[in-house]
Each structure stands twice: as structure tokens, then as C-alpha cells.
Design a protein that fits this description.
By secondary structure, the protein is mainly alpha-helical. It is 63% helix and 0% strand.
Length: 258
């Protein structure tokens, strides 16, 4: 690769926007990997459209981060020219697709949070983030409905689909706690009314999960041990492999645009 990593002046607001953009970009890329491989044509189209929604959210957030930073970076550089340790996405979204059940459980966990998060962020004192939230909430509501219907179908289906769905829940559960963690910089944004405290969403998130999982005849794990690290750049090996594919074109042919 012939293009060096960029440097980013990470103020709390820049970092906040980048982390949410990274969530959307990485999960969108994961879902795009199903294009042409989903179990049916309608689902191939649905997952691709959800991926496009997420990448659209990422674009708006990267553009805003670049505007706030006011340096020489733009959405393309922020998406494609940072080192793996500069990404602040949740560990959950970088996990491999696995089988169809694992992909849908990952989407279900994330969308149940994102729907609540974007709805709350519509009240942000930052007008740009509030506007992004208003658009994203409409999309996340559909994403949650889509994933929920599949969780019920898989859990209350055959013995095989039930086992795969329960296995995915058990495997991915430890990656969900990070969604509700905040650091000192983010806490300052919360006090300023720019960000919302994700911890206040946990009760409603659990209620949403429990309602769907109960209907699906599945169970949520009782363990409260959670993986951490994605928000501060400590990732699983999976993200490095993902970025090598995601960034290959931009690093080989610098200057390409979306």
C-alpha cells in the first residue's frame, strides 16, 4: 500500500463523532459481505439496504467530524486512511458474520441500542448531531423490526435454527456491555447536553431484548462479564483483516471518492 496513515486531532467531539461513524461503517461493511450470499433474494436485498443506511450514517458523521476538526481531513480520509488502533468502533460490530443466525443476533443487539440512542440524540444541543439522529432513528427503527422478526423466526423455528440462534446469543452477549460505557471526554459532552448517557438506555434495551427473545423461546445469558476495548482502539484480530479489504482501493489508488 502506498498511502500513509493520517493523523487526527481528536477533541472530545471529534472522537465522539468518529466512534459512531466507525460503528456504522464497520457494521455496514460486515452486512455488505452477505451481498449475493444471503439465504434468499429478499434477504439479500434487505441486508444490502441496511448496509447502505449504515454507510450513509457513517458518511454524515465522518463529514461532521472533519468539519469540527477543521484540518485537512475529509470523510474519505477518515474512513480509509486511519490505522486500526485509530478506530473506535464497538467490538460487537467487527465480529465476523458467522452463520445467518450470528449475523442477525449481532444486528439485533446493535439495532435495539441504536434505535434508542438515535431517538434520544434528537434532543442533542448540537444541531448537526440532532439532525443526523432524526434521520438515523427512522432507519434504525426499521433495522430493529427486521432483526426482531428474524430472531423470532429462528428461535421459534426448527431445532437447528433454535440452537444456532441461542448459540449466537451466548457468543455475542459479552460484546454488548461496551455500548453503555463512557470515558471522561464523553462524560463532558453529556454534561454539556451534546451527547446522551447511554447507561440510561440500558433498562429499555434489556426490555426490548427480553420481549423478543421470550417470544422466540430463547434466553438471554445471565453473565455480567463484558469485553471492552473497542472504543479506545483495542480491537480483535478481525478488524485488521476487515480494514485490509475495506482500505485496499483507497491506499492503492489515493484520492478516490465515495
Amino acid at each position: 500500500m502506498s498511502c500513509a496513515n493520517i493523523q487526527v486531532f481528536e477533541t472530545p467531539l471529534v472522537l465522539y463523532a468518529l466512534r459512531r461513524a466507525d460503528d456504522a461503517l464497520i457494521l455496514g461493511h460486515r452486512l455488505s459481505e452477505w451481498c449475493g450470499h444471503a439465504p434468499m433474494l429478499e434477504e439479500d436485498m434487505a441486508l444490502s439496504n441496511i448496509a447502505l443506511d449504515l454507510i450513509g450514517q457513517a458518511r454524515e458523521l465522518y463529514s461532521y467530524a472533519a468539519k469540527v476538526e477543521a484540518k485537512d481531513n475529509d470523510e474519505d480520509k477518515l474512513a480509509y486512511l486511519r490505522d486500526v488502533r485509530q478506530y473506535g468502533n464497538l467490538l460487537l460490530v467487527e465480529q465476523p458474520n458467522g452463520d445467518f443466525a450470528q449475523t442477525l443476533v449481532r444486528q439485533f443487539f446493535y439495532s435495539a441500542f441504536a434505535d434508542l440512542y438515535w431517538r434520544a440524540m434528537m434532543a442533542s444541543s448540537d444541531p448537526t448531531l440532532a439532525a443526523i439522529a432524526a434521520k438515523s432513528e427512522k432507519e434504525s427503527a426499521y433495522h430493529l423490526r427486521h432483526a426482531s422478526e428474524w430472531i423470532i423466526r429462528l428461535g421459534d423455528g426448527t431445532d437447528e435454527s433454535h440452537a444456532r440462534a441461542q448459540g449466537a446469543i451466548d457468543h455475542l452477549w459479552a460484546f454488548t456491555g461496551e455500548m453503555f460505557s463512557v470515558d471522561e471526554g464523553e462524560r463532558a459532552l453529556i454534561h454539556a447536553g451534546i451527547a446522551i448517557d447511554p447507561g440510561t438506555l440500558r433498562g429499555r434495551w434489556l426490555t426490548t431484548l427480553s420481549d423478543v427473545v421470550d417470544e422466540a423461546t430463547l434466553t438471554l445469558p445471565q453473565s455480567d462479564w463484558m469485553q471492552q476495548g473497542g472504543r479506545c482502539g483495542r480491537h480483535s484480530e478481525h478488524l485488521g483483516h476487515l480494514l485490509s479489504e475495506l482500505q485496499s482501493m483507497q491506499r492503492t489508488f489515493p484520492g478516490q471518492t465515495w
